[in-house]
Design brief:
With 426 residues, this protein is of the alpha+beta class. Helices cover 33% and strands 23% of the residues. It is built from nine helices and 26 strands.
Length: 426
């Protein structure tokens, strides 16, 4: 590779200026890019569903972005995603960045936009940026002056272009592989859901006599199964609660009980063993919250995640967003959980969605569940758990392969911008 020259980051930009938030939009409003618009691993930003704000003439003159500029996040972030993400500006319309971002205009006599974007991405990815982060009230703030005092090696423009061409090609190939693997996971998830629905509504033996359920979306069910409203399979359907004075997660020390919320549940049926938040004996003794038996099913009855279900292996508490179905002894809780997860679209259809989707205890209790005797329930649950375990193992392997591809992607970018590539590759 050709010889490189060392520069401090701050010397690679002809302009660096903070963004602005402006005022409520009017007929003169323009795009205001926010940190939430940054597409981290795509080196770009969203182009749809953007925010519009109105700015003064002076703000438009001094802060307006143009194609070839970069935007860098200087406030926000989190433990797993530090502040400092960068994106190339690609809109062909007037736009500014918000006050949580800075405009960076590369000095194209020294460095190309694409090359410096890869450099800044690499510094963010290898967490060099973390050394320049200050945190107050839960928000990370990037000390731009300190961060841009870092030194980087910059080759000649012609060499930068070769490196960018190589990286664009390699990154595109890896991203395409990652996308295919994600699509495969989606296909497997849909297949698993279809199998669960088939088993909890039709059973396993195709030779059983069938009967019309009388319900359009359900169709035919095994003749020896019953169609029973959920409320008749349970001793009661209740809603959890939040203790008086409860405001923060309690420590996971001794003398605490699980207090489940919707955030503890996955999208599909799942077993949960630990809640993110706990209730101490002291809190429980001084409140009216009720403990529920382990032979119960938790069901999210309100909000965007309505229909999520879970079971646990010990007694527990929940907040008021969860309905608790306390089952009778002749009902397998896992079978009911599988059934409800398969009927999630029915749950959403029955919900009152005038404002916030809500499925109250009465409507939940009126859902009709096709169900066999306990012995067959147990056999069906055993079959479904095997399917779910096999599915989880396959998805785990695919997810691991995705992570390996991401690591390879990061390593290739790092090697390229650090001058470690074999010249024959370019």
């Amino acid at each position: 590779m050709s010889l490189s020259k060392q520069y401090r980051l701050k010397h690679l930009f002809s302009k660096r200026i903070g963004g602005a938030w402006g005022i409520e939009p009017d007929e003169n409003a323009v795009v205001c890019l926010r940190a939430a618009d940054v597409l981290t691993d795509q080196f770009s930003h969203k182009i749809y569903d953007l925010t519009y704000r109105t700015f003064s003439d002076q703000e438009l003159i001094s802060r307006k972005l143009k194609v070839g500029d970069l935007i860098i996040e200087k406030s926000g972030g989190g433990e797993n995603q530090p502040v400092g993400r960068v994106a190339k500006f690609i809109l062909e319309e007037d736009a500014l960045c918000s006050n949580f971002l800075d405009l960076l205009r590369p000095n194209n006599d020294i460095v190309t936009t694409n090359y410096i974007c890869y450099i800044l991405y690499n510094l963010w990815k290898n967490r060099t940026v973390v050394r320049s982060i200050k945190q107050t009230t839960g928000i990370q703030n990037l000390d731009i002056e300190d961060y841009f005092d870092n030194k980087v090696k910059i080759p000649a423009i012609s060499q930068q272009n070769k490196i960018v061409d190589y990286l664009d090609n390699e990154v595109a190939k890896i991203d395409a592989l990652i996308e295919k693997k994600k699509q495969l996971i989606d296909i497997l998830e849909e297949k698993k859901k279809a199998v669960i629905k088939q088993v909890v509504t039709k059973g396993l033996d195709p030779n059983f006599s069938i009967k019309d359920s009388g319900i359009g979306w359900l169709g035919e069910i095994p003749k020896h199964w019953q169609l029973v409203k959920l409320k008749y399979l349970s001793n009661g359907i209740e809603t959890g609660g939040t203790p008086n004075g409860y405001d923060i997660p309690l420590s996971n020390g001794e003398n605490v009980h699980n207090w489940f919320t919707p955030g503890d549940l996955d999208e599909d049926y799942n077993k949960v063993y630990e809640s993110k938040r706990k209730l101490s004996y002291e809190v429980i003794e001084n409140s009216s919250v009720r403990m529920y038996d382990s032979n119960s099913v938790m069901f999210v009855g309100i909000g965007a995640t309505l229909g999520k279900v879970a079971v646990t292996d010990s007694k527990f508490y929940t907040n008021q967003q969860l309905n608790i179905i306390e089952l009778k002894d002749n009902v397998n809780k896992f079978f009911i959980a599988f059934s409800l997860s398969a009927l999630i679209n029915v749950s959403k259809m029955l919900a009152n969605s005038a404002t916030l989707p809500i499925l109250n205890q009465q409507k939940l209790g009126d859902i009709q569940i096709p169900i066999p005797k306990l012995e067959e329930q147990n056999l069906l649950v055993e079959h479904l758990e095997t399917i779910c375990d096999n599915h989880a193992n396959v998805v785990f392997k695919i997810s691991n392969s995705i992570e390996l591809l991401k690591e390879k992607r990061t390593a290739i970018i790092s090697a390229a911008v650090n001058g470690e590539l074999n010249a024959s590759l370019l």
